[in-house]
UniProtKB/TrEMBL annotation:
This is Histamine N-methyltransferase. Substrate binds at E28, N283. Pfam families: Methyltransf_23. Keywords: Methyltransferase, S-adenosyl-L-methionine, Transferase.
Length: 294
């Protein structure tokens, strides 16, 4: 049953504001960068198979900071190659930010950007309707499988687009993170399945195991300062709570019982640790790397 609460993604401006605060308070992007610079290059070595042109799809690309880090590593591994980069992002503001970022980097002239203001599901429908036959050498889906109705079907579709030696990289919250604990207990109350899924890397690995799909997986340690969430009426705390629960105006619209239960769990050692008077939430991520279907 879908949650009666309003999903945060219904208010894009509020979502983007809370997301930016989340990035400021967490080590999310830093742990991704560590993975991109230390683990990803070896994976990118095998793609392309000597071709002079590579096709890349970024699904849920946001403002592009992490995308461009990955494209930089791809360029280092294949410096003579040109790239066609399909950007899939439903937020007008995020797409605008991405375009501004690209305009500031003339060294990206080896990349042709195609901007798709659409969700992953809309992109899939568009791809099928136009009978596209192009294959992708590298696809990445970062923190976006929460926003499709059927994460497994979405993975299967994008995996089917991979070229020989292609790679699909998925990044989600870890099942061992505070998010995993929160969703395990309050999935029914918080998750509006018409819009968002409380899905973790563990759920995706279970799906892939059930289909006999082989993959590599990595854990990325990450944390987030959520101290203000426990200060009644604190503006930043309210935004962080909205982001953590994916609920618009959570403190104002959730029942007192649900709010008290969520705050208690967020502070519990299963989700957070205390450090120098701060409450530090476990924001660990999981990375899943899938090859082309054999």
């Amino acid at each position: 049953m879908a949650s009666p609460l309003t999903s945060l993604v219904n208010d894009d401006r509020k979502y983007q504001t809370s997301f930016q605060l989340f990035l400021e308070r967490s080590s999310e992007h830093q742990c991704m960068r560590d993975f991109i610079h230390n683990k990803l290059p070896d994976m990118l070595s095998s793609i392309g198979d000597g071709k002079s042109h590579l096709n890349v799809i970024g699904v849920g690309s946001g403002a592009g900071e992490i995308d461009l880090e990955m494209l930089s590593e791809l360029h280092k591994r294949h410096p003579e190659v040109t790239v066609d980069n399909e950007v899939v992002e439903p937020s007008s503001q995020q797409l605008h930010n991405y375009k501004v970022l690209v305009s500031q980097k003339p060294e990206l002239n080896y990349i042709k950007f195609t901007w798709n203001k659409m969700t992953a599901s809309e992109f899939e429908e568009h791809w099928k309707q136009t009978k596209m036959t192009k294959k992708a050498d590298f696809i990445h889906m970062i923190q976006m499988l929460y926003y499709v109705k059927d994460p497994g079907a979405t993975i299967s579709f994008f995996q089917s687009l991979l070229n020989k030696n292609g790679k699909l990289i998925i990044i989600l919250v870890s099942e061992k993170s505070g998010w995993g604990k929160l969703w395990r207990k309050y999935r029914n109350q918080l998750c509006n399945t018409e819009i968002s899924q409380c899905v973790t890397a563990g759920d995706i690995k279970s799906f892939l195991d059930s289909k006999g799909v082989s993959y590599q997986s990595f854990d990325l340690p990450s944390q987030m300062d959520i101290t203000e969430c426990f200060i009644e009426g604190d503006e930043k705390g309210e935004l962080l709570l909205d982001f953590l629960t994916e609920v618009l105006d959570f403190s104002k619209t959730a029942s007192q019982e649900l709010k008290a239960g969520v705050l208690e769990l967020l502070r519990h050692p299963d989700c957070s640790v205390g450090s120098e008077g701060r409450v530090i939430f476990n924001n660990n991520l999981g990375v899943i790397v899938i090859d082309k279907t054999t």
